[in-house]
Write a structure and sequence with these properties.
Blueprint: H1 5-16, H2 25-34, E1 37-41, H3 45-58, E2 68-75, E3 80-86, E4 89-90, E5 97-98, E6 114-115, H4 121-130, E7 139-141, E8 171-173, H5 175-181, H6 184-194, H7 196-205, E9 228-229, H8 231-242, E10 246-248, E11 253-258, E12 263-266, E13 271-273, H9 277-288, E14 307-312, E15 318-324, E16 329-335, E17 346-350, E18 353-357, H10 364-376, H11 394-398
Length: about 400
């Protein structure tokens, strides 16, 4: 009966999975059943309704395509989960109903996750910037590129040769241009320069694990996003860059009180700096180019400062958009709960529109845009605070030069 059933389920599971609420699962269940407590959450009603409406409008629950959409929204610098929504109603039977929360990890009521595609390129950007590689660093990026076998910067590892291909532009690009156009061969080359294991470590520092609970692993295609993760994991990772390099563990519950107002639980300060502010701010500045003219997210512009990244997996098995403004980080996934590789987003009619191939900008992107516009309506258009203190000029880091050439700068 709730307008936010999947968020409510996440709250209950947060109690069930946390020993702070009782030593055993039975103790935690008793706490909820006994009653007499007030649970205050980070649910933002406006955000929740905006996300639910967007997901339901773009892909109705009983759409013949049977495709699903899930949205997760996080408040940067806090880890507060503002909204968890999907184009499904809560129920155990019938088309358009489910009790799986596609936005979260399996242990929290979700699934084993979905491959995230090029949304993983944020971790390569951050790792490269931390290694001292300039956003103006150019790399020749042909439509297909051969990389010889080697360690890829991972001590004790050996990887066979690898030949990724582009699905967008090819040529010579700098980091800003390559992010705007999502150039695969550029980012695989950048990952190799920055170090594959450094890139994976950056993702781990930003809170990324597989949705089944396993740790992510290093392999050359890591930057192209073959790891199966949840939208909440990706929203919170992007929120780390949004919060100038501060990672906060995601959580729904803020505090619990008894009926007299006595505080029984308050969320601990579970935040830490995982990268320098300069690296985080430069990462944000690079990703603003995705939203500008020539970028894969240019059609999703909000008319205010925003950064983001499209993601499309092999064979269009899943499509993503993850992006943020200074107020909120939001991740959207679209795919098929029956199995993305068996039921890809290809040659299909969704909500009356035919798609030969689904992309991050064409399905999850519009859900992200509608959600963000509805949530941010009547809120001030805040600017990313990137330049003044850390010497990042907008011309160098945030300029919309995705269509122009740039001189090479290796470090």
């Amino acid at each position: 009966t709730s307008f936010a059933p999947f968020y409510c389920d996440y709250v209950l599971r947060e109690v069930a999975n946390n020993k702070v609420f009782g030593d055993t699962p039975q103790d935690r269940a008793a706490l909820l059943k006994r009653g007499g407590i007030v649970i205050k959450t980070n649910l933002d009603v406006h955000a929740q309704k905006a996300a639910t409406t967007a997901a339901m409008n773009r892909i109705p629950p009983k759409d013949g395509s049977k495709k699903a959409a899930a949205v997760a929204m996080v408040k940067p610098g806090t880890g507060g989960v503002m909204a968890l929504a999907q184009n499904r109603k809560w129920g155990t039977k019938g088309q358009g109903n489910t009790t799986y929360n596609y936005a979260v990890n399996a242990a929290d009521g979700g699934t084993i996750g979905m491959q995230a595609g090029s949304t993983f390129k944020i971790f390569t950007i951050a790792a490269a910037l931390e290694d001292g590689i300039s956003p103006n660093h150019t790399i020749y990026s042909p439509s297909k590129k051969y990389f010889p076998s080697g360690s890829w910067g991972c001590k004790g590892h050996y990887y066979d040769s690898y030949s990724p291909a582009n699905s967008t532009g090819s040529g010579t690009f700098n980091m800003k241009q390559a992010a705007a156009k999502s150039v695969n061969t550029y980012f695989v080359a950048l990952e190799r320069e920055a170090g594959l294991c450094n890139t994976v470590k950056m993702a781990k520092r930003m809170g990324v694990t597989r949705a089944n609970g396993d740790a992510i692993e290093p392999y050359p295609s890591f930057t192209l996003g073959a790891e199966e993760v949840s939208p909440l994991t990706m929203a919170n990772a992007y929120a780390t860059a949004d919060a100038h390099g501060i990672y906060c563990k995601p959580h729904a519950i803020d505090n619990i009180t008894d009926l007299s107002g006595r505080k029984l639980y308050e969320v601990p300060d579970d935040c830490e700096r995982v990268m320098s502010r300069k690296v985080a701010d430069a990462t944000t500045a690079v990703l603003t180019n995705v939203m500008r003219s020539g970028g894969t997210g240019s059609s999703l512009s909000l008319g205010r400062d925003a950064a983001g990244k499209t993601g499309t997996t092999d064979n269009n098995s899943a499509v993503w958009f993850v992006g943020y403004t200074p107020q909120v980080a939001t991740a959207v996934w679209v795919g098929d709960p029956r199995g993305g590789f068996k039921h890809p987003v290809r040659n299909i009619v969704i909500n009356g529109q035919y798609y030969d191939k689904g992309h991050g900008s064409t399905l999850p992107g519009p859900i992200w845009e509608q959600t963000m516009r509805a949530y941010l309506d009547n809120k001030p258009a805040k600017r990313f605070d990137l330049d003044a203190k850390f010497g990042l000029s907008s011309a160098r880091y945030g300029g919309g030069d995705s269509g122009s050439s740039s001189s090479s700068s290796n470090r």
